[in-house]
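Entry 14. Ran structure prediction on the chain below.
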Amino acid sequence: MSLFEDLVNQHIKELEALKQKLLSEVETKIKQRSYELLSKYSEEIGNVQSQVTLERERILYEALVESRRIISNTYEDLLKEIEKDIRDYIDKNRTNERYIKFLENVLLKAKEVIGEDVLVYSSPKDRNVLTILMRKHGLRGEVVDRDMSGGLIASSRDGAIVLDMTLDTLLETNVDEIKRAMSSVL
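Output, structure tokens:
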């Protein structure tokens, strides 16, 4: 071989070595950059997945709260409707034997607790029935008209003893029982 060929071969070997070195460096840099990008995007994907999970949970929670609010409002609306139906029924059936018996039992309870001299506050629609029932059971006193749905309030003359058996009070004290009945049906 000649000197010229030796120099060319030497440069070819150096270029081959440089090529291998550059390929190795480029390959290393590509791998390193790939790992960096993969790590970065994996973290971003994880963050996005966390955000999606949080958003899903927020939406589910809001839907749960909204459904509970709707159910609560529905129960309240039903309760108001039941109360209205009861008031309407009493108003339309004041001469019904069961309602008159209820008034009579309340008067007897008032006689037992208060005595024979009572003031009875009631709806003007119940005045005549109560006057007759008071005479029937030997009660003295008077029936005073008051704006109420039904039932009565019996009081001693001095107001020291009061028995409130108005429809409004009975509904208010039995609202939990009405709600339980609604829950068992619904």
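The CA atoms of residues 82 and 157 lie 35 Å apart. Will compare against last week's run tomorrow.
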